[in-house]
Amino acid sequence: MSERVPGSRGLATVRVAVGTVIAAAALVGAAALVLLPLPGLAREDGVSVAAHPPASASVATCVGPIIAAGRDASRAAQLTDAAAPALTAAAMSDGQTTDATRSTLAAPDVTGGIGATALRALPNGGAPADVAAAASAQVSAEDLSGFVASSCTRAEMESWLVGGSGSTGASDLVILTNPGEVAARVTITVYGAEGGAVPVAGNNIVVAAGSQRVIPLASLAIGEENPVLRVTSSQAPVRAALQASLTRVLVPGGVDQVGATAVPDTDLVIPGVPVVTTQGGAGESNVPTSLRLLSPGADAQATVTVLQGGAAVGAAQTVPLIAGVPLKLDLGGLATGTYAVRVSATAPVTGAVWATSGFGAGSDFGWFAATDELSAPALVAVAAGPAAGAAPQGPTLTLVSSDGEPQTAVLAAGGATGAKTDVAVPGTGSVTVPVRPGEVYLIDPGAGSVHAAVTYAAAGAIAGYPVEPSASAASAVTVYPR
């Protein structure tokens, strides 16, 4: 049984970072007592104060190792580690390099699992620290093959996961990680062909403090070809991710670690979409690039534009969306290269792009999420690339203008201390520049704002992840003195 979620209802989309929950709640509560105007009373003078919650520790949580399911024939549901990740990380506070302590979280659902890593950095005086971390791993086995790369991000009270499948051949896993000191209670709403619902297996999931839970996607969305998951938490935020893997006629077809995509909005930007192959069969299942899109709250019209260089590629596609029902849109026919996808809709939508390097042995795939805009300098870690010989080129960074105006972003290697490079971001289109694996960069968007993502693309290694906004760029709380 499951609890049906009406598709016509609006969805609140609140994203709260670890370390700011208590401080923000205390600030807002105090403001409500002494500063906010009482109901029914309107202020005439327009006086307001922008207040920032006190800085607290910044925490970045990684997804952890690649996980294999059912390798022991006598224990088909058993989960074990398949490949350990390589981590790249750095932290800065008030423009200075600072230390980030590492801890390993418990993994009770994985037999002998080494667990995920959490990184914590303290503020420097009143300035919050920025933690940039990303991990990658590669596996080549009879049951699992491919390359994964994912960023280590803040835990959230709400996350959207776009990717994976509950159909035959998929062995996908939902990964919930709680780096905090209080247990979290998680609810997973699954959007599929019949709309949104909370399955029994997705209700009241307890994630203990300092631990990770792993739930098979099949227990949540069996038979769903294009699921979208909304993960909400109470008591404590969690880091939500998805491990997607695929087997075609006993041949592994790739694996990916999929982080959260942007919360529903009327404007989505998905940078860094790689097209490695243009080959596809006559059937829809052999399309090498496709977009999964959801309008959770209302019927909508969505216009999808593919960008590269300083222009749009081909004609935009406008598609209707049924509230609560995911749509798969073919993006095939693109030449090899790196693109961005922009979606403008009449109601808030969320989505991600799937891309594969092929459909035979040795192929890989990746999911590429919609990103939040960067309106202040932000750190990004570039995870190590695939094994030598697997990739003809290194990782890349793709940037897209947020508002359609040309921007000049500054990219500094080694955080703020390295060589700086000006990157011209076109108003329409995208720009892709090479970056070094194992390096940390500071992206300064200048006077404007941009969307950015890191991408890995090769015949047997496709992956990518968004660049997250800086912790120091958190919005102020506006209060109104009486």
Describe the overall structure:
The chain has helices at 21-34, 218-221; strands at 2-5, 49-51, 58-61, 66-69, 79-83, 86-93, 96-98, 101-104, 117-121, 129-140, 145-151, 158-162, 173-178, 184-192, 195-199, 205-207, 211-216, 228-234, 239-248, 251-258, 265-275, 289-294, 300-308, 311-312, 317-321, 327-330, 337-356, 365-369, 378-381, 396-401, 407-413, 420-425, 431-434, 440-444, 450-458, 461-466, 477-479. The model is unreliable at 6-44 (pLDDT under 50). Strand 19 (239-248) and strand 20 (251-258) form a beta hairpin. The chain is built from 2 helices and 37 strands. The protein is 4% helix and 48% strand. It has one domain.
Please outline the major beta sheet: 8 strands, antiparallel
Shape: globular
Determine the number of helices (DSSP H or I, runs of at least 4 residues).
2
- Report low-confidence residues grouped into runs of 5 or more: 6-44
Report helical residue fraction: under 10%
The oligomeric state is single chain
Structural Rg: 22 Å
Structural class: mainly beta
Distance between the termini: 51 Å
Strand residues, percent:
over 45%
Average pLDDT confidence is 86
Total discrete domains: 1
Number of distinct beta strands: 37
